[in-house]
Design goal:
There is one protein chain. By secondary structure, this protein is mainly α. The chain is 75% helix and 3% strand. It has helices at 2-7, 9-30, 35-42, 48-69, 82-99, 103-111, 115-141, 154-158, 162-182, and strands spanning 80-81, 148-150. The longest helix is centred in the last third of the chain and has 27 residues, at 115-141. The mean pLDDT is 87.
Length: 185
């Protein structure tokens, strides 16, 4: 089955569409595609978004480790830099703060008929993507070279196995979830 997916673009597109629909469904069920919930997160009054995204990180890590053990995926590292992270975070944050959606929650909100996501979000994503493409050479030649992080991972940074790093991350997230629940969030 995996070979069929890897070698057939049509199967990849159908599989990707199905995963996107499932992702949007779960975002909608969790309520994180609602402006009020996202605003509550930004105002530190409702931590639903944090809980959903933290849960997604845990599930994603478990899925990655399982697929890696089966030989379906390979571990790959990427690089980053302060020069790319700060402007990227600021641009993302301004759009997120103004509209109240990130790309995933915006797509889910459009799915349930939110006109603000359709009228404000979709053109914003298209414009932002276009601006990134036409300015990519600038980012690569300048911003990405300002204080580079390299391609070191947390497990390498702390000198522990990937499993220990992942389990530590899960422990921190679970402790955070428990603390939020005990505090009434």
């Amino acid at each position: 089955m995996l070979q069929t997916i890897r070698s057939n673009k049509s199967v990849q597109l159908v599989f990707g569409l199905l995963m996107g629909v499932c992702f949007g469904f779960f975002l909608d069920r969790a309520g994180v595609d609602r402006y009020e919930v996202i605003l509550g997160q930004l105002l530190l009054r409702d931590f639903t978004v944090l809980k959903v995204m933290g849960s997604a990180v845990i599930v994603g890590m478990a899925g990655f480790f399982a697929m890696r053990r089966l030989g379906w995926v390979e571990y790959q590292k990427t690089h980053g830099s302060v020069g790319a992270t700060i402007p990227g975070g600021l641009i993302f944050g301004v759009g997120f703060g103004l509209l109240g959606y990130c790309p995933g929650t915006m797509a889910a909100a459009m799915g349930h008929g939110a006109l603000d996501a359709l009228i404000g979000g979709l053109p914003g994503i298209i414009l932002g993507s276009w601006l990134y493409v036409i300015s990519q050479k600038f980012w690569q030649s300048t911003a990405e070279r300002i204080i580079p992080f390299g391609d070191i991972t947390f497990d390498e940074l702390f000198g522990v196995s990937r499993w220990k790093a992942a389990l530590t991350c899960v422990g921190i997230l679970v402790a955070l979830f428990i603390a939020l629940e005990l505090a009434g969030y």
